[in-house]
Amino acid sequence: MTCTAPASHPPAAACPAGAGRPRRRLVLAGVGAGASALLMPLLALPTRALADAGGERSLALHHTHTGERLAATFAAGGRWLPQALAVLDRFLRDHYSGAVGRMDAQLFEQLHALQTRLGSGAAFEVISAYRSPHTNEQLRRRGGGGVARGSLHLQGRAIDVRLPGVPLAELRDAALDLRAGGVGYYARERFVHLDTGRPRSW
User: How far apart are CA 75 and CA 53, in angstroms?
Assistant: First the structure.
């Protein structure tokens, strides 16, 4: 796993201590019964969205507001890797307040499935992920649309992204085809909203 921040940010702002050190793709050598207990069971997405649920699944992300970049293997052998999820939580924090929430790992499965389906090796550009209640309310008061009072961003169950080299409408259509949650299309703002709520679109 690699994690980098722009020169204007101290490394700790982008990665928890030790995140930049080699971790053998976050799979510990000689995994036994004790270490296996640390791995989280994988909740199922629709089969069509997870054609390779038993293999390693990785993501590359670029946060458009902080400038940070992250590449991490978040799942292997049908299990989520807690260390990687913690790093992703930190990376996808509320960029206004710095508050860190717990992201729904199903979002990472959606992103991986989309990247595989679209045949892209580019890093997803992240516009927004976790939002604290205070930030969400401030954005609602500011206006501009797209910020719901009960937004799933508050629960770490939503992310707004685009994928360089892939037309936004194509990304939206691929997400709709997954039927794995909500899909919002924001052409003017240039992002697609994905969440793990009930399948719906706008």
Answer: 9
Q: Tell me: the pLDDT tens digits for 94-152?
A: 999 999 999 999 999 999 999 999 999 999 999 999 999 999 888 878 875 567 777 89
CB atoms within 10 A of CB 88: 24
CA-CA-CA-CA torsion sign (90, 94, 100, 105): negative
In this prediction the pTM is 0.75
Evaluate whether 128 touches 160 at the Cβ level (below 8 Å): yes
The total of structural domains in the chain comes to 1
Q: Which bin fits 146, alpha (ψ -120 to 50), beta or left (φ > 0)?
A: left
Which of 54, 63, 57 is closest to 93 using CA atoms? 63
Domain that holds residue 48: 2-201
Task: Give the Cα-Cα-Cα angle 44, 118, 160 (nearest 5 degrees).
Answer: 70
